[in-house]
C-alpha cells in the first residue's frame, strides 16, 4: 500500500538538510522515524498492560503500602 505524506515546508527543509548531512535519503529517514515510533508505542502499550495486570494482582498490597 502506498501513501502520500504531506509535511509543512519547514519540516521538509529540515528533513532535506538532515538527509544531506547524513548522506541518506529523506525517505530512509522518514521510514526510520516511523519504525522508532511504532517500537516505542508498542513498548508503552506493553508496560501499560503489564502495569494494569500487576496492579490488579497486587491490589491489596498496593492499598496497604498507600496507607
Automatic annotation (TrEMBL):
Record InterPro entries: Arc_rbn_hlx_hlx, Ribbon_hlx_hlx
Domain of life: Bacteria
Protein name: Ribbon-helix-helix protein, CopG family
Organism this protein belongs to: Streptomyces durocortorensis
